[in-house]
Design goal:
Elements: E1 5-6, H1 15-29, E2 43-49, E3 56-62, E4 64-66, E5 69-73, H2 84-91, E6 94-99, E7 102-110, H3 113-126, H4 128-136, E8 144-149
Antiparallel strand pairs: 1-3, 2-3, 2-6, 4-5, 5-8, 6-7, 7-8
Helix pairs in contact: 3-4
């Protein structure tokens, strides 16, 4: 089961989905700003499509700003597997993000080599949670995903869901 929240699905959600839904609702209620336990770092809401189901999902994620782009890390709370959103973006890299500045269409790509290491080090410097997740993650390398911005209007155009 994915950690994302399926849009429109009012079936019983697992604990993580319920938590994610509260985070997304709070983010939107605050005018796309973070609060509570997330007040110390930037948050985005990633809209992505299920690789197998084709269903629409939203996932709240910490990110590292990188110019016009956003960088996310598939730490999955130090779990032994990659998060569902990571598999979804590999299958369908077109997505939408909600950030404080607006809603934007993006294309996801996996950072590799020296780019990955540079972004990873920058995130380690600002995120104690990521440092803890890295230490606790055993048996897999945490993927680094760059969300490249496709439009500049801050409203996401027709791609915003």
């Amino acid at each position: 089961m994915t950690s994302a929240v399926q849009k429109g699905n009012r079936d019983v959600m697992n604990e993580r989905q319920t938590f994610d839904r509260r985070v997304v609702d709070d983010f939107r209620a605050r005018g796309r700003k973070t609060g509570g336990s997330f007040a110390d770092f930037p948050l985005l809401v990633l809209h992505h499509t299920g690789a197998k189901s084709g269903a629409a999902y939203v996932s709240p994620l910490a990110f590292l700003p990188d110019g016009e782009n956003w960088v996310i890390f598939a730490a999955n709370g130090a779990r032994p597997t990659h998060p569902g959103w990571y598999h979804n973006l590999r299958a369908e890299p077109s997505a939408v993000v909600e950030v404080e500045a607006g809603t934007f269409r993006v294309t996801a790509r996996i950072a590799e080599g020296s780019e990955r290491e540079e972004l990873r080090e920058r995130f380690r410097e600002v995120s104690w949670r990521f440092r803890d997740y890295e230490k606790a993650t055993v048996g897999r390398e945490i993927p680094v995903v760059v969300l490249e911005r496709l439009d500049g209007d801050g409203e996401g155009g027709a791609g915003a869901r």
